[in-house]
Write a structure and sequence with these properties.
This protein is an alpha/beta fold. It contains 9 helices and 11 strands. The protein has an 11-stranded mixed β-sheet with strand order 8-9-3-4-2-1-5-6-7-10-11, with helices on both faces. Helix 1 links the parallel strand 1 and strand 2. Helix 5 crosses helix 7, helix 5 packs parallel to helix 8 and helix 6 crosses helix 9. The chain is globular, with a radius of gyration of 18 Å. Bound molecules: ketopantoate. The site of ketopantoate (KPL) has 11 residues, from helix 5.
Length: about 280
């Protein structure tokens, strides 16, 4: 059975997912934070445009034939879950997709009975204007159960199939805690440094930034290892350099947030590491 995809918000990744669903003719809805319908154009790297229409309120009631994906900023996860929790059946799977940590812990208190997954993607997407998202680079999506959650194989396969149709390629990860820490470590270096120095991701490969890159990786590897996910500074430096190379001309999401005077995800990224260290 194919699950209908429901996407919260018209952020860059949510819009990319909707465009993928539109292209694959996969049943989906995307919901705008505004009360009236909205539209977003998503431009792929070959300049093809897919237009998706985002629905406003009232939000629908979901069943076990639906999946709710929450690709919002870390600090918006709580309000999104509060907005949707009374509309979910106990069989509706929920997939969290945000930078930084803390979402799964929050979900455990707000929607404890829900089948819960987490996903990260290295596809690059940039919201250039309210109604225009650009797919800036192909990547892959990593999907798994949220830490301490486990659901049936049938449901796992259904959620996997949705992502395989809409945001491929998808890799199933049996230890998302490790995958999320890995992504967190990369974000904790690239995001704040690119925002502070006002540079694209690729500039971080220059020699002059290596002292900060090494110091952050050293510190993060120690906290990561103490939290039960063994890592070393050289491993993290390699991971950071690989992402910086692959997304060289992109501006990180935190660079964009600072540039546009928006709230950043620093608390869920660097703040989480500091909190774990304590
Ligand atoms: O996830 C990102 C972000 O900008 O938030 C990276 C991986 C750094 C790519 O820009």
């Amino acid at each position: 059975m194919t699950l209908t995809l429901h996407i919260v918000g018209t952020g860059a990744i949510g819009s990319l997912l909707a465009a993928g669903a539109e292209r694959a003719s996969h049943p989906y809805s995307i919901y705008s934070r505004h009360s009236s319908p909205d539209y977003v154009k998503v431009m792929s790297d070959d300049e093809q445009i897919v237009r998706v229409t985002a629905l406003g309120s009232p939000l629908p009631r979901l069943t076990g034939n639906d999946v709710l994906v929450v690709p919002v900023k870390a600090y918006q996860v709580e309000s999104a879950l509060l907005q949707w929790r009374d509309l979910l059946s106990e069989r509706t799977p929920v997939v969290l997709m945000h930078n930084g940590m803390g979402g799964a812990e929050l979900a455990r208190t707000l929607i404890p009975a829900q089948p819960l997954f987490v996903a990260t993607t290295s596809h690059g997407a940039l919201k250039e204007r309210a109604e225009l998202v650009r797919h800036t680079g192909a990547g892959e999506t990593v999907l798994g159960f949220a830490p301490h959650y486990k659901v049936s194989n049938a449901q796992r396969n259904q959620v996997f199939d949705v992502f395989s149709s809409c945001l491929p390629p998808v890799r199933w990860h049996s230890n998302m805690q490790a995958a999320l820490w890995q992504k967190l470590a990369v974000n904790a270096v690239i995001n704040p440094l690119t925002a502070l120095f006002d540079i694209p991701n690729g500039a971080l490969l220059e020699n002059r930034y290596q002292p900060q890159v090494s110091a952050l990786c050293e510190e993060t590897a120690r906290v990561m290892t103490a939290s039960g996910v063994t890592s070393t500074a050289p491993e993290l430096i390699n991971a950071v350099q690989e992402v910086a190379r692959r997304t060289a001309s992109n501006f990180s999401s935190m660079h964009q947030d600072v540039k546009h005077g928006r709230r950043t995800e620093i608390d869920a990224i660097s703040g989480y590491i500091v909190q774990q260290a304590k």
